[in-house]
Amino acid sequence: MPARPTARRSLLLTLGALTTVGLAAAGCGSDSLSGGGSSSSTTTSSAPAVSADAALTAMLPQSVQDSGTLRVGTNAEYAPNEFLEGNTIKGMDIDVMNAVGAKLGVTVEYSNASFDSLITGVSGNRYDAAISSFTINEARKQQVNMVQYYNAGTQWATKAGNPEGVDPADACGKTVSVQTGTTQSDDDLPAKQEACTAAGKPAIQVLSFDSQQDATNALVQGRVQAMLADSPIAAYAVQQTEGLELVGEIYDAAPYGIVVAKEQTGTADAISQALQEIADDGSYAAALANWGAEDGAVTEFPVNP
Predict the structure, then answer these.
(1) In this structure, are 45 and 106 located in the same domain?
(2) CATH number for the domain harbouring residue 41
(3) Which of 93, 96, 173, 224 is exposed most, by the fewest CB atoms within 10 A?
(4) CA distance linking residue 188 with residue 190, whole number of Å
(5) How many domains does the chain have?
(6) Is 273 a member of any domain?
(7) Sheet-wide strand order for 82-85
């Protein structure tokens, strides 16, 4: 994960353990959390209207065609890609997936769950797909299919002015925060820790959190000296949180992928083709533009690149 100078907003939002959001196939339906009598709200988008492609619908499992619903898992704690604002789920990934759902001719129904449960949820048929800033890597491709849709790197953040003198290229002895299960947690930091040890320097101390909000809050509270995340996430954290700044350059850029079960090759191919079609009609670019994320746009949407 598959990388805020004003008052905080979404960073301190509360996340429910498991909540479901249904969005209409037209791409602008209810995006409020379901539950006891709560009223629904709708969002509007500047994106072009997306028309369903019947040929793509026919590629989906019969159960999805019969229900008209694509069950999608996400972890809404990674603003601006996927996050909760009150009872509303928002984000770049959500806008992209809504446009894909519209092209597939189905309603997208989101389940909000922990990040590290999403791949097993797809493999276990709890979800038909998952979108949650998953960086495509070989380990994940061994478990599931991944459909490329975006490109992001890793970025570090510190308190404004970098008072602890954190150098992302040599952070030995520093304490950093990160979200559990991300590329930064599982790959980047362990490699940096090994490099520190091999050079005879103190290892990087890592505080890992289930939510990105908590990882960012640890930096704000002074519990760590730096935080690292996917580049759009770190940039949004700095934008939305007073007293933080980005440090160093973006590195290790890699594609994000929509997760589909290994055996569901038809669904993966349908999503790939739907992404190409929404790129062609402008809906993809509009979804990214809603969040200032145009720099990570891709032009090809292969399965398991």
Answers:
(1) yes
(2) 3.40.190.10
(3) 173
(4) 6
(5) 2
(6) yes
(7) 77-78, 82-85, 88-90
pTM, full prediction: 0.74
pLDDT in tens, 140-161: 999 999 999 999 999 999 999 9
Tokens 């590195």 correspond to what residue?
Answer: 251
Tens-place pLDDT, residues 11-58:
223 233 333 343 333 333 334 343 322 222 223 333 457 889 999 999
Distance CA 281, CA 147 (A): 19
CB-based contact 89:31 (threshold 8 Å): yes
Q: How far apart are the first and last CA of the chain?
A: 16
Q: Do 109 and 30 belong together in one domain?
A: yes
Q: How many CB atoms lie within 10 A of CB 289?
A: 16
In which residue ranges of the chain is pLDDT below 50?
1-47
Give the residue from 34, 101, 8, 77 showing the smallest Cα distance to 287: 101
Cβ atoms of 49 and 28 within 8 Å: the answer is no
C-beta of residue 33 within 8 angstroms of C-beta of residue 88: yes
Classify residue 287: in a domain, yes or no.
yes
Beta bridge partners of 149: none
Q: Which domain holds residue 35?
A: 10-152+255-296
**Token pair 């090809």 in the structure block, residue:** 300
User: How far apart (Å, rounded) are the C-alpha atoms in residues 2 and 96?
Assistant: 15
- List pLDDT tens digits, range 239-254: 889 999 999 999 999 9
Determine the Cα–Cα distance for residues 73 and 55; give it in Å rounded to an integer: 24
